[in-house]
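Researcher: Dear colleague, please comment on this protein.
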Amino acid sequence: MFTSKPIKLFAMYVVLIGLVFSIHPVLTVSATGLQDVVVQQMRCKSSIPILSVRSSPGTEFAEVEKVSTINGVVVGEFVNGWYRISGNTTVEGWVSGRDVHGCDAENLLFMGKTEHEIRNELAHAGYPFAGIASPEEILRVYSNTVVDIDNNNNDKQGLVHYRPGDTSLFTRWASQVSPGNSLPDYPRPQLVRSQWLNLNGMWGFERAIADEHPPFNKTLSSNILVPFPPESALSGINSHVDRAWYRREVEIPSVWNSQRIMLHFGAVDWEATVYINGHHVGTNQGGYNPFSFDITDFLHHSGLQEIVVGVFDPTDSGEQVRGKQVHNPVDIWYTASTGIWQTVWLEPVSATRVDYLRIMPDVDRGGVMIETSVVGDLSSVTAHLKVSSKGKLISSYSVPVNQNYFIPIRNPVLWSPDNPHLYDVEINIVSKGKIVDNVTSYFGLRKISISYAGDVPRIHLNGRPFFHIGVLDQGYWPDGLYTAPTDEALVYDIDMVKQFGYNLVRKHMKVEPQRWYYWADRKGVLVWQDMPMGNNRSDWGKHLYKAELQQMVQNLYNHPSVVTWVLFNERWGEFDVGAVTSYTKNLDPSRLVVGATGYADEGVGDIVSYHSYNQIYFPEVSNGEARVLAEWGGLGLPVNGHLWTEGGWRWGEPSYVQPVTDTNSFIEWYRKYVDQIGVLKQNAGLSGAIYSQIADVERESTGLVTYDRSIVKVDPSLMRSIHEVLR
């Protein structure tokens, strides 16, 4: 039985679903319909005295009000982790579900079943988290076990059943994943529009062979939970494919009829060919970068629209950019992720609209350079910009489009890990006196540079020497592989980086979804961004590498957290380092570039970057570049019950790992190494050191937290105190 008052969502659903069932008894639960047909309302308390109210459910939206929680707060509809304010007549908006709790409700059953009975039923159905998930998570999983086919149109004869596949580890967020709750957060925080339609959820899925005809108007043999790659447990497929078909049907909202309709993909690995209603729309190559198609001219006037996507990924058999993905994972090489692995979504836009923004902070001049790129009819078009700080308007300008325009900021507040201050931007595109497009974005004012301090060049942040206390992050998840189970999971890793006392993340051999960088911007973490490797044997492979490098730089350009591009790692796929470095500096002269990391390549790029395991060592180098120990440590501390492969784990452990027996041994070695790094900082001019790594990955047990993020191996406060010697 429920032993205490059920918390927020569980109690709310129990009461209201029970009411619905008493009126319209049904045999299955429609997960997507629950929140649409019921007006939800309950009074909750909060652990903080003041709640921030946002205009829409998400921190990327503007704060419209603050409300006191002394007498509790009345909330209603629950969407994507946010509650709509209800019963407060003077306030309209949304508050984060994380900030409200202790909701008043009675101890009631769900569909006549107790919590214990529901947990047992899910456990027998094969859900490994049934015994540990919170009550509201259990209800969410249970109510989404059967999903209404009207919203997942692969099987027209009945209902689509979803359950995750088998894997040795699940994160605690896995129980929140369902067809009705599959990465629902707005995917593009750097360019926000108010209207969009998330297409994550159940799609038809089927293995493919080369050159076969697309499966138009056909029910596919399986179903997959997008955007989790088929190799992942959360996808429901749980097996590797090189080629596959995705299919779903969707109805375009009628209120969008007068606008252009864009189909967006966060990322598809590696090649995606897209069809709408039997027509080929386009093909994209590149596994890490977002792409879009205007599908308006391929749509039916009304009714269901068919989307078919063919994907192909040769993984390590090809030369394309792939990071550390391989067909046969071993040592430091990991399970591949094929196909759709980031959010798919629709967006209505004006024919004349913002295509992209390019935001360049200029700390020396005390402002920011903004280029508003607009497509469509450009006759008599201007952009009206409003810049705000913490909700207060600080400047407003009308500027020309498709060219750089400098915006001065009075008394600028600089962005740094200690003070990650962000400015909000609203842009209205005005054509012939009428607003035709409205977008919002943000920026941070910061400068990264190399300057001499004494006799050696050091990395400076905002004009001052700043030591990079960093940690490596590979961005893998045991249940989602390339795809984090939830937005909260992404935030957890960044929060842990901060708690351990690091100010920098080296994002290793992977480019993350935009929301990861959004949280790095918000939380205040510097980022060294690796370019994922490819084999790069032929001219074709080298051309692909440079094309995807250009896309990565463009797509991440506006994020203040990103301060360094790392082009090649340990000579993996390395070619023409000097030329590629110059190419990157031309693309982005505002950031630092590491040409090749691991072997102290000199004379190329801004930083000499060396790797040293089982010892702390840095070679003698010239005075031309700053010096960073870009990988060190590798202290392997396995935690039984939280390993990718249980039993005999040492046999498969990479050779770089330095085994330690317990937490005390880990701390002893870690402190010893940090003290040695401190000596290098003083005597050799070291500008940074990056520990490997934040989380275990597959056969590697060198993380500060386990692969499933269940166990924090060492005390974060102790780690912070150890790092003080480097500040």
Q: What stands out?
A: Residues 1-40, 105-109, 146-158 have pLDDT under 50 and may be disordered. The CA atoms of residues 154 and 580 lie 45 Å apart.
